[in-house]
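thought: fold this chain, then report.
action: predict
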Amino acid sequence: MVDWIKGFAGAVTVCDKDGKVLEMNEQACKVFAKSGGSALIGSSLLECHPEPARSKLAEMLANPSVNAYTIEKNGVKKLIYQAPWYDNGQFGGFVEVSLPLPGNMQHFIRKTTA
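observation:
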């Protein structure tokens, strides 16, 4: 794994096209510590998720697409962004980035310039 991502504040998890966990950064290992942390590397994400998330993941693996949403757990709001990655144009799997969002996060609408 690239060095900068090890200490990145967001949790980054990468799986292959079958849903097998390939990599997790340190934050992802902490977030998923109760489920096994780094021991999840090599395991199937399908086995790690309860329904209906398991079916959603199976559908995403069969038909790669972006899945993005926010959640709130234990008073912390997070952005979850799951997107396919490709190797030479071939679907390789998914990258999930989980970012904690500040409570006072600003939103800007930018005008495009010609």
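thought: worth noting. The longest helix spans residues 53-62.
final: tokens above.
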